[in-house]
Amino acid sequence: MRRVVCPGSFDPVTNGHLDIISRASRLFDEVVVAVLINKTKKSLFTIDERVAMLEEVTREYGNIRIDTWHGLLVDFCRQNDIPMIVKGLRAVSDYEYELQMAQMNHRMAGVETMFMSTNPLYSYLSSSLMKEIVKYRGDVTGLIPEMVHQRLAERLQE
Predict the structure, then answer these.
(1) So what CATH class is 3-156?
(2) 150 partner at 20 to 30 Å CA-CA among 14, 65, 96, 144?
(3) How confident is the model at residue 158 (pLDDT cuts 50, 70, 90)?
């Protein structure tokens, strides 16, 4: 079975994330979306909320599994028999950072990294930017799933 992991914080999931996940789902038998548990970072949504949103918006694919991880991604890969990481690249600045991580992951555990260029429709998209726009009631139509938009608007207006 060809298995890959697509890691991230997904706080919240955007259509840019979903573009990479869906493209990976056509290339691999199973895509494990690993949601980062980072105790030093304050997230807007809890880990359970992020997992639930991802499960809902990826349900149609059939070969996506949502999981969580804390610690080194290569340890997660070892524990789940995953030989490859897939990452989306939006800009050259993403590449510089991700290349270093890919090289270290390969050195530590022999885990490969596949880079996918982001669809130009989403090249400027980030979860942080979506939070900022929704906070001020801006239009994010087509940038995040509608269900995510509703939950984001509710959370930011609390």
Answers:
(1) alpha beta
(2) 65
(3) low
